[in-house]
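Question (not urgent): is this output format expected?
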Amino acid sequence: MRHMTNMCVETVVRSLALWRTRSNRQFLAGLTTNELTLLRKVSTRVHPRDPMYVSGQAGHYLAVGLSASRAITDLLRPDQINASGSILDFACGYGRVLRFLRAMFPVARVTCAEIDSDALDFCRRVFDVNTVLSGPDFTTLPMPREAFDLIWCGSLITHLDEQSVSALLNMFYECLARDGVCVFTTHGQRAADWLRCGIVSYGLDEINQRASVRQYDDDGYAYADLENSPRYGISLVKRQRMNELLKQAGTWQTVQYLESGWDNHQDVYAVWKR
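Got this back:
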């Protein structure tokens, strides 16, 4: 009973922090009129176990979601945005970006996929979405063919080895509708430079940090498991290598690219299936 009470209290605390942030003049400074309108529509409900929310950093939580919405808007042409279409948020977590997708496309049919069943339950209740329980093998997931007009995949490839990424891109190609757009993020040059300079570790020990940077420089794709997390770690990928993986997965019409375009950190790619 006490555990449930603590969770309810934490939910209220987090939601109130997001609500206050939406009224903070310093946070709102520099936002466009469209972004201000979007922000007012975004749900402020946050799950008490959402690992992306850091206490005292409600502004950053919202800023990351805003950055994703900005990248999607920048990479899509107006004629490619189908407001009543079908959207997939793959690896949605507890809805840090999903809440912005739902606000951007309020009448779209939204599906989210995640390996965490509690996160899926929360997203289903709060954001009115369909859900798919994911797993480590992307070749066996029950994803419909040519079903989605827009796929968003934020900070998943950043944790996968090259073989898993190839399987993921194949799945995206199969379930992306004709004329659909897939937008995803990776660790690129900025992440490699941060590792090289010791600014971040991404949870890797020093040996794996150095090895990852060398592999990135030499091969264009680097991966290392996190401790006690087989098949889930940290990856780095150069743009040229990612373009090669995309060609192996399908006949993508165009590739658009924003270096460090998500939260001034991860690279963003947008690919069209024409």
